C-alpha cells in the first residue's frame, strides 16, 4: 500500500459543543495518511495518475470553513468521507488535534481510520 501524507495541516473551522465555542472559527490541526496505488504515477510521472495533495488540502480547508461541528469525531468522519469519495482513496488515517483548548493540555483530539 502506498501512502500520501499531509502533516500538521492547519485549518480554520467552527468546532465545539457549546454555542459560544462555535461562534468564531478556531484552528484545528490535521495529520492525514491517504492510501492509494501509486504504481501508474511512478511510471508516467503524471499528476493525473495520483492524488493531488494540494487539491486535498484546499478542498479540506474549503469544506471545513463552510461547516460547523459539535464533535471532533464528526469533523474527522466528514474529512475521511470527503477524501474517500472525492479523491477515490483506498483508505484514510486521520488525526484531528484541537490545540490549547483546556488548561494544562497541549491538545486533544481523535485518530480514525476508514477504508473504501
- Can you give the mean pLDDT? 95
CATH fold naming: GTP Cyclohydrolase I, domain 2
Class computed from helices, strands and strand pairing? alpha+beta
CATH homologous superfamily name?
GTP cyclohydrolase I, C-terminal domain/NADPH-dependent 7-cyano-7-deazaguanine reductase, N-terminal domain
What's the helical proportion of residues? 25-40%
Do you know the CATH architecture? 2-Layer Sandwich
- Report the top-level CATH class: Alpha Beta
User: How are the strands ordered across the major sheet?
Assistant: 3-1-2-4-5
* Overall number of domains: 1
- Portion of residues in beta strands equals 35-45%
For the sheet with most strands, the description reads: 5 strands, mixed
Radius of gyration equals: 15 Å
**Total number of β-strand segments?**
5
Order of helices and strands: EEHHEHEE
- Ranges where pLDDT stays below 50 over 5 or more residues in a row are none
**Number of continuous helical runs:** 3
Rough shape? elongated
Describe it.
The protein contains 3 helices and 5 strands; from the N terminus they run ββααβαββ. By secondary structure, it is an alpha+beta fold. The chain has one domain: GTP cyclohydrolase I, C-terminal domain/NADPH-dependent 7-cyano-7-deazaguanine reductase, N-terminal domain (GTP Cyclohydrolase I, domain 2).
Describe this structure in a few short sentences:
The protein is an alpha+beta fold and 116 residues long.
Task: Indicate the topology.
Elements: E1 2-15, E2 26-36, H1 39-44, H2 53-66, E3 68-69, H3 72-86, E4 91-99, E5 107-115
Parallel strand pairs: 1-3
Antiparallel strand pairs: 1-2, 2-4, 4-5
